Amino acid sequence: MSLPRRPAIRFTALGFGAAQGGNLYHATSDETFAAAVDAAWDAGVRYFDTAPHYGLGLSERRLGAALRDRPRDSYVVSTKVGRLLVPTPETAHRRDPEGFDVPANHRRVWDFSRDGVRRSLEASLRRSGLDRFDIVYLHDPDEHWHQAATEALPALADLRGQGVIGAIGAGMNQSAMLARFVRETDVDLVMCAGRYTLLEQGAAHDLLPAARQRRVGVIIAGVYNSGLLARDRPPDDATYDYRPAPADLLQRARRIAAICTEHGVSLPEAALAFVRGHPAVVSTVVGLRSPAEVTETVRRTAAVVPAALWPALRAAGLIDPA
């Protein structure tokens, strides 16, 4: 069986996640976010990821403004489809209920139809002011497999064939359905959030082997499991999957951190190095809000992690032998 020919997209090892540009959890100014993009650019980052979901379009607007005057062929930018933003002026006095500090002046409507995909992409282009997106992912189609596979992906494939977009894929917080997309559809890339990290490696048993076999690139997001791996020693109030971390996972993360310290590296440094080590992984996207966060993440990415760390973690039963 011949494998599909994949579009040639050049990724930087570190990608800029722009959810924070949509005021994830708390507000960020236009100036601070623009400065974060500048700092990432100066550090050599050339892959930027956004979505309509992030701040009800705010992330796309801010990221587009920050990139608009840069040479278009010098960077890669991705967005997502599957949630249409419908104006709701009657609720604009409230705050968005899905974790973004923005007025609830739109509501998200799931739509993985052909028409919905095209409408979503057209709206993203208008908001961002960009002339194109290099990658478009289906965003969290967990409850919409049939429509996503039979309508949304064929619509994206048509746009790819016309040269309107470069590559297509899906982005999710699970690995099982991503593996199914890889095996059963013509995706070029997938974005897996939180399911292949230093804390848990479920994707090593389904998604990553399938991706290698089908020559599909994997972008890893949620490398810190939404916060649990983001500090040298996880605090009591650490979060996991955007909720307070369960006690057993908190203890596991602290055991990993202790062994990292014994080998002269921090927990976040090891977390970034671990996911980069898999041959199916083409980039790691980290959510970034400010120049200081960019500087720290770039420093962590450059840290040298001794090879002896991984067998030590395996011997302690803290990472999957696979």
Lateral arrangement of strands in the main beta sheet: 1-2-3-6-7-8-9-12
Average pLDDT taken over every residue: 96
Rounded radius of gyration (Å) = 19 Å
Distance separating the two termini: 27 Å
Into which percentage range does the β-strand content fall? 15-25%
Q: How many H/I helical runs?
A: 10
The main sheet comes to:
8 strands, parallel, barrel
Question: Residue ranges: pLDDT <50 for 5 or more in a row?
Answer: none
Global structural class: alpha/beta
Structure description:
- The protein is built from 10 helices and 12 strands.
- Strands 1-2-3-6-7-8-9-12 form an 8-stranded parallel β-barrel, surrounded by 6 helices. Strands 4-5 form a two-stranded antiparallel sheet. A two-stranded antiparallel sheet has the order 10-11.
- Strand 1, helix 1 and strand 2 form a beta-alpha-beta unit.
- Helix 5 packs parallel to helix 6.
Features:
36% helix, 322 residues, 12 strands, single chain, alpha/beta, two-stranded antiparallel sheet
Summed up, what is this model?
This protein has 322 residues and is α/β, with parallel strands linked by helices. Helices cover 36% and strands 17% of the residues.
